[in-house]
Amino acid sequence: MTEHPIVLNPEGRFPGLIVVDHAGTSTPLRFGGLGLAEHWHDTHHFCDLGVAPLARALAERLDAPVILGTVSRLVIDLNRWLDDPRSILTHAEGRLIPGNLSLSDARRKTRQDQIFWPYHATITQLWTRIAARHVDPIFFALHSCTRDFDGQRRPWDGGTIWNESPRLAHALLDALGPSGDLAFGDNQPYSGRDGVYTLDRHTWGSGHRACGFEVSNDLLKTEQGQANWSARLGGALASLAGAELHL
Predict the structure, then answer these.
(1) Which Pfam families has this protein been placed in (predicted)?
(2) Cut 0.90: pTM above it
């Protein structure tokens, strides 16, 4: 049984695609379960906290096509190469993930075939259609991240992720404008320069505008925080879409 991603506004007017690799909170029992206590579901290890409602708000604000991953990143990470040890984590913060230990090749392949590949096939299909009908489309990978990581407090409230080209990332930072008390990073807190699977797989060598963006999840805990970031990112993305969005 295939785990299909959620697709919002596939025919939306926005000249681009928003993808959310780590929106998922599902842990289908047929994959064996993770063996973690319930409170792990409320951690950034389990999913990108607050990012799903933010993406839904952007879909509505921009009339943008959006693809949401539905399965927890701890079952399989949709934004990792399959041979990356982080594709299916065996531990997080020193805690073993029982359901991911000693997976057979067959069980690992089942997760790939039923979760990973269908997600990326959906992106390929929709992105191909969007790129064919727009002159300069935008591929935007949306994430959230934790403020405190590995014993350090991160100063960034939001930040771009890019590898091949900074064209969209730098334009987005310019479009976000004066940030007041907010601190924005460029390839911070995560850099894409060592490779970032979803962006690279779907846009490398195409010349299309592409980047990811992280929002610190402590800013997405409330509906007001999500609304603030929807307005902030939505306004910036709309300005980058330019006249094409308003035809």
Answers:
(1) FGase
(2) yes
48-60 per-position pLDDT tens digit = 999 999 999 999 9
Question: Following DSSP, what letter does each residue of 10-22 receive, concatenated?
Answer: TT-SSSEEEEETT
Q: Are strands 66-68 and 152-153 parallel, antiparallel or unpaired?
A: unpaired
Q: How far is CA 172 from CA 68, 189, 232, 234, in A?
A: 22, 16, 11, 11
Q: How many CB atoms lie within 10 A of CB 66?
A: 27
Distances (CA, A) of 11 to 42, 120, 123: 33, 18, 14
Q: Give the residue-averaged pLDDT of 170-197.
A: 92
Residue 197 reports pLDDT greater than 80: yes
Task: Report the SS3 class of residue 196.
Answer: coil
According to CATH, what is the number of the domain 6-246? 3.40.630.40
DSSP assignment of 146-193:
-SEETTEE---SEEEE-SS--HHHHHHHHHH---TT--EEES-SS--T
Domain boundaries, the chain: 6-246
Q: Count CB atoms within 10 A of the CB of residue 122.
A: 18
How many CB atoms lie under 10 A from the CB of residue 89?
18
pLDDT band at 179 (very low <50, low <70, confident <90, very high): low
